[in-house]
Design a protein that fits this description.
The chain is an alpha+beta fold. It has two domains: 280 residues, no CATH class; 93 residues, no CATH class. Helices cover 19% and strands 42% of the residues. The strands form five sheets. Strands 15, 16, 17, 18, 19, 20, 21 and 22 form an eight-stranded antiparallel β-sheet that branches. β3, α1 and β4 form a beta-alpha-beta unit.
Length: 379
C-alpha cells in the first residue's frame, strides 16, 4: 500500500496536485469544512482528478492532517492498495428512523466474502447512529472491522454533508470497503470523561429521543444541571454528555451527546439510542484524561497492526465536544495519537458529531466524546 496526504485551503489552493495513483484500487478520503457545500469548487476539482478512484468524505468540525488541526479548508488522504480490491457505496437517509435501512443498504452494496474493513460517514444531524450501525452489522460478518463517524458542522449544528458522486449532499451515508486477505485493520476508541451526580433511570424515550429521566422531563432536568450554560444549548451539551449503562451492574458504558432540544416536548435528541430502562449519568471533562484516552485508543489500534508493513493509514475521528474542552491544546491529543503509531504512518481525520467503532461483542456501535482511531495496512 502507498499513501499520500495533502490539503486545500482558500488562501493557498492545493498543497500538492491531486491525481496521484488514480486506479480502481485507490481510496480518496476527503474531510472538509461544512461551508464547502455552498462553495464546492475544490471538491469538484478533486473528484475530476480521480475519475477511477473511490472518492468518499464528509464535512467536519475541524480537519486533521498529521498532528495539525485546521478549519475552513479540505484535507485529503490517498491510499493505493497493491493487492486488495476496493468498493464504495452511497445511500440516502430520509430521516432518523430510516437509519437502519440505510446502513443495511450500504453494507449490502459492499458485501464480499473477502471484505475485511468498512469505513463509513453519514449526515451528522438527520441520523440515528445506533440504527445505522445495527443496519451495517445485520449484513457484514462480525469479523469485518466497521468504523467511521458522523459528519460535523463546527459547533453550529446547522447542516452537514457527505460526498455522493463528488457532490456534497445532506441526508446520505457513504462508505468504502476494503477486500482481500492481505488487508489488516485495527481500531481503538477511548473517552476520558468523569461522571458526576446521580444515575437516573430513563423512564421514557423513543430510539434516540429522550423524554423523561426518573419520571421528570428530560430537558428540564438537564437544564437544572447546566444553569446559565443552558442558554447555549444544544452546543453547550457537548461539555456535559451522558454516560449510559444498561443496568447498574453493567461495567460497560456508552456516551451520548445532544444534537437538538425541543422546548415544547421538553425532549432531547441524541446522536444514538437512549433506551428506556437504562441508567444515565452526566459527565464532565478532565483534560489529562482526554489526552490519555486518545493515546490509549491509538495504542489499541496500533497494537492490531502486524510488524513489517511498509505503510499504515491512520484515520482519527474525534468528537467536537473534545475539541471545545481542549481548546488551544486540541493538538495535544493529535500528538498523543501519532506518537503511538507505527513508523511510516500517515494520519488524517476529522472532528465529528459521533464516532463509529467496535465495542461490546466486537460489533460496531455509535460512540460520542471519544477519540476513535482506525488503522489500515497491507501485508
Amino acid at each position: 500500500m502507498e499513501l499520500r496526504t495533502f490539503e486545500w485551503t482558500p488562501a493557498h489552493g492545493w498543497s500538492a496536485a491531486p491525481g496521484w495513483a488514480d486506479t480502481r484500487e485507490t481510496v480518496v478520503l476527503a474531510f472538509g469544512d461544512a461551508t464547502l457545500r455552498d462553495h464546492p469548487e475544490a471538491l469538484r476539482e478533486l473528484y475530476a482528478a480521480y475519475p477511477s478512484s473511490h472518492v468518499v468524505g464528509c464535512s467536519t468540525a475541524g480537519q486533521i492532517l498529521g498532528t495539525t488541526l485546521s478549519d475552513g479548508g479540505l484535507v485529503v488522504g490517498v491510499a493505493h492498495f497493491d493487492a486488495s480490491t476496493v468498493r464504495s457505496a452511497v445511500r440516502p437517509i430520509d430521516h432518523a428512523d430510516d437509519s437502519f435501512r440505510a446502513g443495511r443498504g450500504v453494507a449490502s452494496a459492499l458485501a464480499d466474502e473477502d471484505l475485511r474493513a468498512v469505513f463509513l460517514m453519514c449526515d451528522g444531524l438527520g441520523v440515528n447512529g445506533s440504527g445505522l450501525a445495527r443496519g451495517v452489522a445485520s449484513v457484514v460478518s462480525p469479523d469485518v472491522v466497521v468504523t467511521g463517524g458522523l459528519a460535523g458542522d463546527d459547533d453550529r449544528f446547522g447542516s452537514t454533508w457527505v460526498l455522493a458522486d463528488g457532490a456534497p449532499v445532506s441526508g446520505h451515508v457513504c462508505a468504502v470497503g476494503i477486500c482481500g486477505p492481505r488487508v489488516r485493520a485495527g481500531h481503538g476508541s477511548q473517552g476520558g470523561w468523569d461522571r458526576f451526580g446521580p444515575e437516573r433511570l430513563v423512564t421514557r424515550s423513543s430510539a434516540n429521543v429522550l423524554y423523561e429521566l426518573d419520571g421528570r422531563p428530560a430537558l428540564e432536568t438537564y437544564r437544572s444541571y447546566l444553569g446559565e450554560l443552558a442558554d447555549g444549548l444544544p452546543a453547550a451539551a457537548l461539555l456535559f454528555p451522558l454516560a449510559l449503562r444498561s443496568d447498574l451492574g453493567d461495567g460497560q458504558q456508552l456516551v451520548r451527546t445532544v444534537l437538538s432540544v425541543d422546548d415544547d416536548t421538553q425532549s432531547m435528541t441524541f446522536a444514538g439510542d437512549v433506551p428506556e430502562g437504562s441508567f444515565a449519568q452526566l459527565m464532565h471533562a478532565n483534560f489529562e484524561r482526554l489526552v490519555g484516552g486518545a493515546s490509549d485508543a491509538a495504542n489499541a489500534a496500533a497494537g492490531m497492526m502486524p510488524g513489517g508493513a511498509d505503510a499504515t493509514l491512520a484515520i482519527a475521528v474525534s468528537c467536537v465536544g473534545r475539541r471545545l474542552v481542549l481548546g488551544e491544546r486540541t493538538e495535544d491529543e493529535l500528538d498523543a495519537v501519532f506518537d503511538q503509531l507505527p513508523a511510516g504512518s500517515a494520519q488524517i481525520g476529522f472532528y465529528s458529531y459521533g464516532e463509529l467503532s467496535p465495542a461490546r461483542g466486537g460489533l460496531c456501535e455509535l460512540h460520542n466524546q471519544t477519540m476513535t482511531l482506525t488503522t489500515l495496512c497491507e501485508v
